Amino acid sequence: MCVIVIKPANMSISREDMDAMYEQNPHGVGISYYDSNKNKLIWIKGLSNKDEISEIIQKLYSIEAIIHFRYATSGPITKELCHPFPIGEKNRLKGESDALFFHNGEIKSFEPTEDEPEFSDAYIFYEQIVNKVDIPFSKEIKGLFDDGINKIIIQTTEYGIDTVGEFYKWNGLKVSNLKFTRFLFEKTKTRKVLSFCKEKTLQAIDGIIWVFTKIKEKIQ
Predict the structure, then answer these.
(1) Could you tell me the CA-to-CA distances from 112 to 39, 64, 146 in Å, in that order?
(2) Superfamily of the domain at 3-179
(3) I want to staple 110 with a disulfide (CB 3.0 to 4.6 A). Which of 33, 51, 88, 125 is the partner?
(4) Would you give the DSSP letter of residue 53?
C-alpha cells in the first residue's frame, strides 16, 4: 500500500516513526527535496538501509522533503519501481528534475499484465498518463483518482507540492495513510504488559518481605 510522507521544514521524522513506516513498507524508500540554488528537485530512490535513510532525513531537517516508503502490492520488488518517478524523463535511481510523481494506493485499471510482469500499476500509470497530461493535474484528472484509496503527489519546481487525496497529520508530518502506526501501538502494548508484569512481581516480592517480617516479629 506504501506511505508518502511530507516532512515540513524544521521538522524531522523520529526514528521510531521511521522504523514503523519501513516495517510496514519494506520494499524501498525514495526521498526528494527542492534545491533553491539549482532550481531543481533533488531525488534518490531504492534505499533500503535504515541508518542511511535516517541520516539523509536528518540532513534535510531545515528543508521540506517528501519520503516514500514502498510496499509492492503490484509489480516486483526492484529499486527501479520505487518512487518518485521523474516526469517527462527516463526513469532512474537518482537525479535532478523539474517534476516528480509519487503514488500510494492501487490503480486497478493499470495493473500489469502477463506481458509486462516487470512493471507496477504506478509505473504504468506514470508512463501512460502522467507523462502525457498537463502538470499540475487538472480538476478532472484529480477527480478520477480522489477515491479515498489512491493518494498522489506531483512535486514541481514551479508549483511546489500538489496532492490528490486526503493526507493525515501525524507528529507534525503529513502522511498518506496511518497503517504504519500499528507497529507503534504493538510496541506500546508490549511495554505496558512488561510494565504490568514488573509491577506485579514487585508487589509479590513486597508481600513476601512483609510475611517474613511478621514471622520474625512473632519469633522475637
Answers:
(1) 35, 33, 21
(2) Aminohydrolase, N-terminal nucleophile (Ntn) domain (3.60.20.10)
(3) 125
(4) H
**Residue 170 CB: number of other CB atoms within 10 A?**
18
Residues 140, 151 contacting (CB under 8 angstroms): no
CB atoms within 10 A of CB 215: 10
The Cα–Cα gap between 143 and 123 comes to: 20
| DSSP-derived secondary structure letter, 81 | G
Domain boundaries, the chain: 3-179
Under 8 Å between Cβ of 95 and 136? no
Mapping DSSP to helix (H, G, I), strand (E, B) and coil, where does residue 174 land?
strand
Cα(85)–Cα(93) distance, rounded to whole angstroms? 9
Name the burial class of residue 190, with classes exposed (0-12), middle (13-18) and buried (19+) by CB atoms within 10 angstroms of its CB: exposed
In this prediction, residue 192 carries a pLDDT of: 45
